[in-house]
Amino acid sequence: MFSGLRVEINGDPAIGFPRQPHDDVFITKTTTMVIVSVSGSISVAWDGYTWVNVAAPDDLKEAMCGICGDANGDASNDWTIGDSDLCMDAFPSAVPG
Questions:
Q1: Rounded to an integer, what distance in angstroms lies between the CA atom of residue 19 and that of residue 44?
Q2: In Å, how far are 55, 58, 69, 70 from 61, measured between CA atoms?
Q3: What confidence score (pLDDT) does residue 71 get?
Q4: Each residue's pLDDT tens digit, 49-79
Q5: Percentages helix, strand, coil for the chain, rounded to the nearest 5?
Q6: pLDDT for 24
Q7: Which of 2, 21, 42, 56 makes an SS bond possible with 60, Cβ 3.0 to 4.6 Å?
Q8: Using the 8-state DSSP alphabet, how is residue 24 labeled?
Q9: Residues in Cβ contact with 69 at an 8 Å cutoff, skipping those fewer than 6 apart
C-alpha cells in the first residue's frame, strides 16, 4: 500500500478490486481506504495518508510485536519490538523496547 491509496501486489500495480492475491488474503479498496485482511487473522485498514487501523483476533494477542506491540490493548508498547523469542527470531538486528 502506498500513499494516495495506490496498491501493488508483488511490485505490480493492482487494478480492479476486490483482489485475492492468495487463498487467505483479500484486498478491498473504497474511495477512502484500502483494507488488507487475512482470513481468520489480521486486518489492516489505511486511508492512504495518515490513519491506519490494525485489528487482530484475541488468539494473537500477546503473540505479536511491532506496530501493534503485543496487541494487548496497552498503547504504551505499540510501535516497539518486544523482548521475546518471537520478535528477536523474526528481527535479529532489532533492539528491544
A1: 15
A2: 10, 5, 9, 6
A3: 73
A4: 888 888 888 887 777 766 677 777 777 767 6
A5: 15, 30, 55
A6: 93
A7: 56
A8: T
A9: 75, 76, 77, 78, 79, 80, 82
